[in-house]
Design a protein that fits this description.
Layout (H helix, E strand, L loop, with lengths): L7 H15 L13 E4 L7 E4 L6 E8 L2 H8 L7 H9 L10 E4 L7 E5 L11 H13 L7 E2 L2 E9 L9 H17 L3 E15 L3 H10 L3 E7 L5 E9 L6 H8 L5 E11 L10 H12 L17
Parallel strand pairs: 1-6, 5-7
Antiparallel strand pairs: 1-8, 2-3, 3-7, 4-5, 8-10, 8-11, 9-10
Helix pairs in contact: 4-5
């Protein structure tokens, strides 16, 4: 049984109630934080994948979608309607032709887009559903750690399709689309994203130093400092990664002798520090742990697994 909640306290209360009402002891694993995969630059090459029958080819590049637009799609401020498409031009400075929107905002995932930049390629509309299925697949299971993608734009630059519909059906196109999207992701400086809490801490000014030290040890940063006029209290607002937020309230009370109180709420997604090729980085450690937990090969799949040659 997998249980999800808004925070550690929420999960603790739910588990306690579940164990009490079920009347059986529970074995509880360590908490797991949702991670997202993204890209940080344009693919350094055009990626090619061929179908199993070698009759169909897709050429794709990946690029970042942009934080503002990704947040708008996540919050449903932008949907796949004609009015919202126009907002892409006015509010978010979309520099592309709206007719190029091929697949947008898959139903069970977040902010990812596929653009059709091909010119004069026949049968593109006929394979749209198959490309969307492959896009949905890779949006749910990215190439790094098989976590969901966020903020990625895939550009289909060219395609070669067999004129006979039997040879370009779903059995040929879906897997090909997934492979080329994975290849494009790996060539666009992929990174991991982690959820970030906005933590509001109320405390007396006498324990301000202890609070700052605790925030710094948890990879956090203070973004706002608000003194309460006429009182010795102040309010600190800080960004702390959810990965570092476990037992935060208990440690805060211990460091301040119970004189500080904290409230956590999700604020945004942030890049996990560290490079993929550095085994000692937090990014590499997270990928290793996630893939191991899922029973996969702990190493990132090589690019050759997804990329084909002319």
């Amino acid at each position: 049984m997998i249980m999800s909640g808004a925070g550690q306290l929420h999960i603790t209360v739910c588990l306690r109630d579940l164990e009490r009402f079920s009347g059986v002891p529970l074995k509880i694993s360590q908490p797991v934080v949702s991670i997202r995969e993204t890209v940080t630059s344009l693919s350094h090459q055009v990626c090619l994948s061929k179908s199993a029958n070698r009759h169909n080819r897709l050429f794709v590049q990946a690029a970042p979608l942009g934080d503002d637009l990704a947040d708008a799609i996540d919050s449903k401020a932008i949907t796949f309607s004609s009015n919202d498409k126009q907002d892409l031009l006015t509010k978010y400075n979309w520099q592309l032709n709206l007719k190029q929107l091929y697949v947008f905002n898959p139903t069970t995932c977040g902010a990812n887009v596929v653009l059709d930049k091909t010119q004069g390629v026949s049968y593109m509309n006929e394979i749209k559903e198959h490309v969307a299925a492959g896009f949905q697949w890779v949006s749910q299971e990215g190439a790094l750690a098989e976590e969901s993608l966020r903020g990625v734009r895939f550009d289909i630059l060219d395609a070669t399709l067999h004129p006979d519909s039997i040879h370009r059906g779903g059995g040929q196109i879906v897997a090909t689309a997934r492979r080329v999207f994975c290849a494009a992701q790996l060539t666009a400086e992929p990174r991991l994203m982690e959820p970030i809490f906005l933590v509001e801490i109320q405390c007396p000014s006498s324990v301000q130093g202890a609070v700052y030290n605790l925030i710094n040890t948890r990879r956090g940063s203070v973004v706002e400092h608000i003194p309460r006029t006429g009182t010795p209290l102040l309010v600190l607002k800080a960004h702390i990664p959810v990965l570092e937020s476990f037992d935060l309230v208990e440690d805060l009370r211990a460091q301040t002798q119970g004189r500080a109180f904290a409230q956590c709420v999700f604020d945004h997604w942030g890049l996990v520090p560290g490079a993929l090729n550095d085994p000692a980085s937090l990014t590499a450690k997270l990928i290793f742990d996630i893939r191991t937990r899922k029973g996969k090969d702990p190493n990132i799949p090589p690019l050759d697994r997804f990329l084909d040659k002319m």
